[in-house]
What does this fold into?
Amino acid sequence: MTRPFLTAEWRWLLMMNYACDPRILLPFVPAHTELDDFRGTHYVSMVGFRFLQTRVLGFPVPFHTNFDEVNLRFYVRRRADGEWRRGVVFIKELVPRSAIAAVARYAYGENYQSLPMRHAIVMPSNGNAGNVQYEWRINGEWNSMSANFDGDPDPLAPGSEAEFIAEHYWGYTKRTDATFEYRVDHPSWRALSVKDTALCCDVARLYPPGVAEVLALRPVSAFLADGSAIKVFTGAPILRAGN
It folds into this structure.
């Protein structure tokens, strides 16, 4: 077992999921992988969450241990060692500090962008629903994703859409010379349903054509995962299919 490059906690993961024509996603699919679907539907997901207690190679980085991230991702799979590895590909990831974005671009080749960000998490109380909101500022305007929630999280139901969205343990990056693969370890999360979801975002400024139009529609589903401690391992190039 190799030493993880990064350890942290991912908490309060708001996942808003949109049905997407696979033809829109094909240009972003890394070599040696293929699009994955759930019962015939291909998804892109807007995911906002808290990145906490972050350590790189076991060491905390001052002023960079706790922060927000909002990413846009879709789902792929790769056949390796006689089994399917279910993974994600990130179209763009937003973080609040340029140093975080620079390290992620260098280490994993991910498309990170640094923007001012903030969050608000209000727990349910006195019969009132809770609320989770992640915000990022671009061109002087605050954009946001948010939802109301209530109740307690439950384990993900086997074979459910939520399990398909949340249970991915590989990441794939499309670089100019190769596809990089890296592993993410965490226990299975619990989740609860949300309501009154809202994405208030200048999608045309942030995301490629096609994908931006998808995000202008209503999500087909959304949920809030409690999260856990995670480990992200160093990536490696895929030299040939099946290995």
